[in-house]
Fold this sequence. Notes:
The protein is mainly beta and 455 residues long. It is built from one helix and 30 strands. The protein has one helix at 8-20, and strands at 39-47, 53-60, 73-78, 85-91, 110-114, 117-125, 134-141, 149-153, 166-169, 175-181, 184-190, 202-203, 212-219, 222-228, 237-242, 250-256, 267-271, 274-281, 292-297, 330-333, 338-340, 344-348, 353-357, 365-371, 378-387, 392-398, 401-408, 419-427, 433-438, 445-453. The protein has a five-stranded antiparallel β-sheet. A four-stranded antiparallel β-sheet has the order 1-2-3-4, with no helix packed on it. A hairpin with a 2-residue loop joins strand 10 (175-181) and strand 11 (184-190).
Amino acid sequence: MPTAVLPRKIARNLAILVCVAAFGALPGEAANPFITTIYTADPSAHVWSDGRLYVYPSRDMDPPRGCDLMDHYHTFSTDNMVDWRDEGEILNSSQVPWGRKEGGFMWAPDAAYRNGIYYFYFPHPSETKWNDSWKIGVATSTRPTSGFKDAGYIKGVGGFAMIDPAVFMDTDGHAYLYYGGGGHCAGVKLKPDMTEIDGQPQPMTGLIDFHEATWVFKRNGVYYLTYADNHPGNNQMQYATSPGPLGPWTARGVYLLSTGCDTTHGSVVEYKGQWYQFYHNKSISGQGNLRSMCVDKLEFNNDGSIRTVVQTRTGPPPVGPADPPNSNAVRYDATTATVGGGATVEGDASTGGGRIHNLHLAGSSVQWSNVSGGTSGGRATIDLYYAAQGGAKIHLEVNETDYSFLNTLSTGDWSKYTGHSYLTVLLKPGNGNVIKLGGGYGGINLDHITVTPMP
């Protein structure tokens, strides 16, 4: 099935989707980027007491407008480093009453945990004149991926270009907040309530060519501070070490070379005995404001220095068994859908059922009505299973709520139904939910979808 003639910019981006499609992964297999359905950046990784690893990234909205429209934070988790669960959206700018009325500008976040409460830290301006009014917002919940409510912002920090909060929990129980941008990095101790500073912020001295993207971790009694530098055109990650959490720091040099993206931002975490570096690149979109998360091993020399990270397309190997199929998934076939705008349901002899074709046409659509949200509604993951010879994307709308675009990477052939994209959304209780997919953004044949309630 040929694709329609597309505007040059869309066609270019879809061609890039074709190029990276070979790096998609089957269940139990790793790949970089490890999240391909939507664009995510600035990953902050943490391991919580349930034994899962959680990543709290920013989200690049598609289509972008610079970095202005970044919003709708999603969280992802894994227990084997290769199978990733979209935990759904945890916060957006409309839920921040003190934020700028125009929304957007929800940039690189972080998270922390203390005494039964999860804290989500995010930079957000309070005024239309955004770069002069940055604040570090806080939202709290008793769960790591849902139920977050705005708790205001941290007084005494922020200001011009002061972004990228990172919270480090030391082994003695004390917490520290780091933030900065525009060449300035500051750190300060937090009070036990995790929302107030304990003392005055102080500059992090000893850093060379600091730009933004602070992250702090501790290994063998040594504190490490990683950050993005100002390498022309393509930032790199550098690091420094200190005997204390607030420095002074000794610069140690570059350990993550450019990822091909003009920005860089990452986090470091130990999980199941292995250290990992999380970062982002632009390998799916080719655009620096539509980025994708990656992860690779982080290795140390005997003296504690960090080896240069080897960026891979395969990602790290699994550290546990593959996730089994979810028995709670409800399948919705093509034959139960309503199609429009030129989309068609066509029989397929290999399956004995129908598949949806012609979703390359502008205005084409497919809709499932009467989708079950269970007795209580809430978060559910929509999985799309498809074939595509060229890269594409498809627009998702659920109960008239716009969930933007989902990438559908190439499977290599129109008859190869190995494509898989997914997103976690909110459903209403009962059977009145409506899922609508809009085409016209590249060629895709759709086999079926499943809807799976979240645990």
